Amino acid sequence: MRLSVWSLCATPAEDPLRLVVMRPKFPSAGRAFSPSGAFWAVCTRVDCKDFLEIFHVSQDWVKLRDFQVKTDDLQGLLWTPSETSLVVWDTPLL
User: Fold this and answer.
1) Which of 4, 74, 79, 86 is least surrounded by Cβ atoms within 10 Å, i.e. has the fewest?
2) Can you tell which superkingdom this protein's organism belongs to (predicted)?
3) Rounded to 10 degrees, what is the CA torsion of 38, 44, 46, 50?
4) pLDDT tens sequence across 34-65
């Protein structure tokens, strides 16, 4: 599965595809914009391990970093109001 971000403002001469995220963990959840809308985080899963990918929402959707999350089965994420941290939660079933 992959998640694609398309620009609605691209001119006909531009490619509207801005970003492709491979292996998103959830088809319609597991992603969140920061309160100001400047950053976007998405959960991915590779080889049975959970990861977060963080992007700066700009013209080019620049990936700032990605890292493995120490969860058994990540279920969701939220930005803190200060945009300096992310809160993730794990499954209650172990």
Assistant:
1) 4
2) Eukaryota
3) 100
4) 999 999 999 999 999 999 999 999 878 899 99
